[in-house]
Design brief:
TIM Barrel; alpha/beta; 9 helices; single chain; 40% helix; disordered C terminus; binds zinc ion; three-stranded parallel beta sheet
């Protein structure tokens, strides 16, 4: 299995990162994809990937919650980091209006700029969208060539109508994490409608732990709970779900091409 979205480079893992990597391998994971947050976390990200070169791949991007009045400077730094190469995606990027609409204009500009970079570089995108689907789809309309974008709506939390819009974008998958296991989750019927061919597994560790780990720090090994939940939902053996979602991830993130993109 491939955890397509986790942040084991953050300080929440400083005390036991080796143990979490070992636990992930023991739980059947073969690769962790690590989206950046902002330039201040890029050093940790690179160090973590250097420590586990056969088990981790970095993404580079500026997260919407890190976008503020200083975002042009943050974007310029992110562009320099991206130019170094070796990334499997531009991420994580997107829009977050959960805490209100402040910096919406700046968030949209940063998002659209990074979508253009992904098109120029031929890289997929890992998208974070919280309470902002209308604005997100407006941003896609602002980007020339957006129909050629490929990526994942990480931790998809949209409505049925938004699911329809997301699925209409051919090159896009939905990232399924711990929140799909919560008792009050509205996701199961939406995931069935999307179909396994459009789903990826992820944890978003250290955030959003699946049942029965709620309230604890999440870690990649816990992805097995989400995989089990998805298998039960689709009425399929867990191996089938593991294999299909891993194949989807390999297709999206060009993981078949070998490791030559790790410059
Ligand atoms: Zn994330």
């Amino acid at each position: 299995m491939i955890d397509t979205h986790c942040h084991i480079f953050l300080e929440e893992f400083d005390a036991d990162r080796d143990a979490c990597v070992a636990a992930a391998k023991a739980a059947g994971l073969s690769l962790l994809l690590l989206p950046n947050i902002d330039p201040s976390t890029a050093g940790r990200l690179a160090e973590t990937c250097a420590l586990y070169p056969d088990f981790t791949l970095p993404m580079m991007g500026l997260h919407p919650t890190s976008v503020d009045g200083d975002y042009k400077q943050q974007l310029a730094l992110t562009e320099q980091l991206l130019a170094r190469g070796g990334y499997c995606a531009v991420g994580e990027i997107g829009l977050d209006l959960h805490w209100g609409g402040s910096y919406l204009r700046e968030q949209k500009d940063a998002f659209e700029t990074q979508l253009r970079w992904s098109l120029q570089l031929g890289l997929p995108v890992s998208i974070h969208c919280r309470d902002a689907f209308a604005e997100l789809f407006d941003s896609f309309r602002q980007v020339e060539g957006a129909e050629r974008l490929r990526g994942v709506f990480h931790c998809f939390q949209g409505t049925e109508a938004e699911l329809g819009q997301a699925l209409a974008m051919d090159g896009f998958y939905l990232g399924v994490g711990g929140s799909s296991t919560y008792k009050n989750s509205k996701l199961p019927p939406l995931l069935l409608r999307a179909g396994l061919e459009r789903l990826l597994l992820e944890t978003d560790a250290p955030y959003l732990p699946p049942v029965p780990y709620r309230g604890q720090r999440n870690q990649p090994a816990y992805m097995a709970e989400t995989a089990g939940k998805l298998a039960a939902l689709f009425g399929l053996p867990e191996e089938v779900v593991d294999k299909k979602t891993s194949t989807n991830a390999a297709d999206l993130f060009n993981l078949r091409a070998g490791r030559e993109f790790l410059s």
